[in-house]
Amino acid sequence: xxxxxxxxxxxxxxxxxxxxxxxxxxxxxxxxxxxxxxxxxxxxxxxxxxxxxxxxxxxxxxxxxxxxxxxxxxxxxxxxxxxxxxxxxxxxxxxxxxxxxxxxxxxxxxxxxxxxxxxxxxxxxxxxxxxxxxxxxxxxxxxxxxxxxxxxxxxxxxxxx
Length: 161
Fold this sequence. Notes:
This protein is mainly β.
């Protein structure tokens, strides 16, 4: 008799400290000044990047570090978007999210690792001072064609990188 054990990544952030497969996890809420989101136009499968520009780029990341003892154990997800630097608050929803280049991406041992445009939900923010914004993200997107929408809710203080 042969027994197989199957382990793969998960975006479940409720894993306990007792879980031997999770070595370290953290969330970052960053703002990049004088930046922009670059969306490649020559490919159906693409990954957005952050480059020099004239916008404020906001980046949420959630990372579960790889466990060297477990193959394919790490996980990373991000949501990025950009706004004009002169505003002090914003609130966009649905198709309006295209104006701020809102994208989701996950990286793990999973089917879809490309950037996915976000056009469902709401992203809003209020400037606290020159280096901090309070931002609320409540969005849905289709990770894999034919499956249910994935929902993400993030609220927190983003800080200038």
